[in-house]
Amino acid sequence: MNKRNDYFPMQESLLCEDYVVATYLLKVPKSDSSLKHAIEIAIDQTTGTWTPVPEETEEVKIGHRARTIEVHEISNTDSEDYKSCIIKIAFPHINFGPSLAMLFSTVIGNNSSMGYIKLIDLTFPEKYVKNFKGCKFGVEGIRDILKIYDRPLLCNMIKPCTGIPPETGAKLAYKAAVGGADMIKDDELLADTEFSHIQERVSYFIKELKKADEIKGEKTLYMLNITDSPDKMVEHALRAIDAGANALMINYLTVGFDAVRMISENKNIQVPILGHCTMSGALSAAAYQGIDISLLLGKIPRMMGLDSVLVYTPGGRFLLEEDKYVQIVNELLQKFYDLKQVFPLPGGSIHPGTVEYLVNLTGKDCIISAGGGIHGHPYGPTAGAKAMRQAIELAMTDPSKRGEKEKEFKEFQVAIETWGKKTV
Question: Which of 189, 274, 352, 385 is the most buried (most CB within 10 A)?
Answer without folding.
Answer: 352
